[in-house]
UniProtKB/TrEMBL annotation:
UniProt key word Calcium: yes
A Pfam family: C2
InterPro entries in the record: C2_dom, C2_domain_sf, C2B_Copine, Copine, Copine_C, VWF_A, vWFA_dom_sf
Name of the protein described by the UniProt record: CPNE5 protein
GO (cellular component) term, any one: plasma membrane
Domain C2, residue spans: 1-114, 122-245
GO molecular function, one term: calcium-dependent phospholipid binding
Family statement: Belongs to the copine family.
UniProt entry keywords in alphabetical sequence: Calcium, Metal-binding, Repeat
Biological processes annotated in GO: cellular response to calcium ion
């Protein structure tokens, strides 16, 4: 499920539209559905009387998707009457941004000037603060032991294991955890296990948790030893006399007057900590560094011919440009300097016509970074006129190029994303696999977009979703490659915007989890961010 984000809105130095008092502002939020340009009203804040510096109490709660471009529009009005019709009130100004822009700003706090459509007119500023809603992200780690459980096996002792269930609103139970089996003992100590608090009690600390104890049998007909109930609030007390439970078999209790229990279970330890999310790292200042690598091999076709994948038509963007825009437009919100290194591979480059597999599109080897996605597109189009398409198609040099940068920042402050756009016929598969296996240890992810009609079997292998990629017997420690064929999203005409949004969604969907898998493997916690009141300058 998508993360939910709460937006807090404040304004400073709004226009004063009231003659005898100050303006009475309200903020109206509009959103767009993916692929649609139509604005729909999402909600309104309360009206704050007589204030040009309102801090609105009403929050907007939005579903946040890293992989979508979520356009937002904030309109401010001075409310003059009780009418809900906005045209009856004075317009004070508006601001446009994306949800990614707010989240990607330092401390997830974005300040923007309000505009009214009148050039040069100062309308004040809007301050937007995004906070992830704590959807109970806690993870509890528990360990149990048992004592004097009933002996169920004819020859040996019992082989006990426990099954945990959380209760539902309607009185039914849902299984949420099963311990391992401890063999041949009536006094087992089970291994500690971690479980999301959500799974254990769905956020309700008083909800019943039922635990059943069984004796494991090879044929699957496990013998019931007994059960007990508890709840999260009890367990959270940790090891104490309250957390020693009698294991009771109700049938034995009915039959035998002297029956006490079938043993006891003791909670040995209980700890709880918050599971960090992608947004925790972004808010703590982690920057995404975006590098583009473009395939300039001859298999793309002569760029001056309309059949070429690199053909620059005056009327529409080619597949390379479209893919670059779709992915770049979203990722640029998370990169504060908006400088993107852009490389080409597989062409003969001036002055001497040698074949290069990592040449800078802007012609500057010491600094291949271009300003903004527009800068990358411009450098790409200039390169097409400068270089001669050639071959072979080698990926390893650009993967290693980004890996060298990633290897210099291992502290979690930066995460590198390499976008390779290619027509898919790869020549250095063995070297590329080795490069990817090495890169999997670094803070980086690789996105491959395949353009054209080729068979992309090799790309699917690099993706490693089904079989984790390996090289010389070493398996990649994380899955860091996502491959998407561009043709699956190629629909010209009015739906083109929607299909590009679909491409971006598919390509970027795995990045948050890949970033988390790196941080977790390295034990890197997000930097704490000081809470900012709207008054403090950024």
């Amino acid at each position: 499920p998508a993360t939910r984000v709460e937006l807090t809105v404040s304004c400073r130095q709004l226009l004063d539209r009231d003659t005898f008092s100050k303006s009475d502002p309200v903020c109206v939020l509009y959103t767009q559905r993916p692929g649609s340009h139509q604005w729909r009203e999402f909600g309104r804040t309360e009206v704050i009387d007589n204030s040009l510096n309102p801090d609105f109490l009403h929050k907007f709660v939005l579903d946040y998707c890293f992989e979508e471009r979520q356009n937002l529009r904030f309109d401010l009005y001075d409310v003059d009457s009780k009418s809900p019709d906005l045209s009856k009130h004075d317009f004070l100004g508006q601001a446009f941004c994306t949800l990614g822009e707010i989240v990607g700003s330092a401390g997830s706090r974005l300040e923007k000037p309000l505009t009214s459509g009148i050039p040069g007119k100062k309308c004040g500023t809007i301050i937007l603060l995004a906070e992830e809603l704590g959807n109970c992200r806690d993870v509890a780690t528990l360990q149990f032991s048992a004592n004097k459980l009933d002996k169920k096996d004819f020859f040996g002792k019992s082989d006990p294991f426990m099954v945990f269930y959380r209760s539902n609103e309607d009185g039914t139970f849902t299984i949420c955890h099963k311990t391992e089996v401890v063999r041949n003992t009536l006094n087992p100590v089970w291994a500690a296990f971690a479980i999301p608090v959500r799974a254990l009690c769905n956020g309700d600390h008083d909800r019943t948790i039922k635990v059943e104890v069984y004796d494991w049998d090879r044929d699957g007909s496990h013998d019931f030893i007994g059960e007990f109930t508890t709840n999260y609030r009890e367990l959270a007390r940790g090891q104490s006399r309250f957390n020693v439970y009698e294991v009771v078999n109700p049938r034995k209790k009915m039959k035998k007057k002297k029956y006490l229990n079938s043993g006891t279970v003791t909670l040995l330890s209980f700890t709880v900590e918050a599971e960090h999310t992608f947004l925790d790292y972004i808010r703590g200042g982690t920057q995404l560094n975006f590098t583009v690598a473009i395939d300039f091999t001859a298999s793309n076709g002569n760029p001056s011919q309309p059949t070429s994948l690199h053909y620059l038509s005056p009327f529409q963007l080619n597949a390379y440009s479209l893919a670059l825009r779709a992915v770049g437009d979203i990722i640029q919100d998370y990169d504060s300097d908006k400088m993107f290194p852009a490389l080409g591979f597989g062409a003969k480059v001036p002055p001497d016509g040698h074949v290069s597999h990592e040449f800078p599109l802007n012609g500057d080897a010491s600094n291949p970074a271009c300003h903004g996605i527009a800068g990358v597109l411009e450098a790409y189009q200039c390169s097409l006129r400068r270089v001669q398409l050639y071959g072979p198609t080698n990926f390893a040099p650009v993967v290693n190029h980004v890996a060298r940068s990633a290897a210099t920042v291992l502290d979690g402050s930066q995460y590198f994303v390499l976008l390779i756009i290619t027509d898919g016929v790869i020549s250095d598969m063995a070297q590329t696999k080795e490069a990817i296996v090495n890169a999997a240890k670094l803070p980086m992810s690789i996105i491959i977009v395949g353009v054209g009609q080729a068979e992309f079997d090799a790309m699917v292998e690099l993706d490693g979703d089904d079989i984790r990629i390996s090289s010389r017997g070493k398996v990649a420690e994380r899955d860091i490659v996502q491959f998407v064929p561009f043709r699956d999203y190629m629909s010209g005409g009015p739906g083109a915007g929607l299909s590009m949004a679909g491409l971006a969604r598919e390509v970027l969907a795995e990045i948050p989890d890949q970033l988390l898998s790196y941080m977790k493997a390295r034990g890197i916690k997000p930097s704490p961010f000081p809470p900012m009141s709207p008054e403090t300058p950024p």
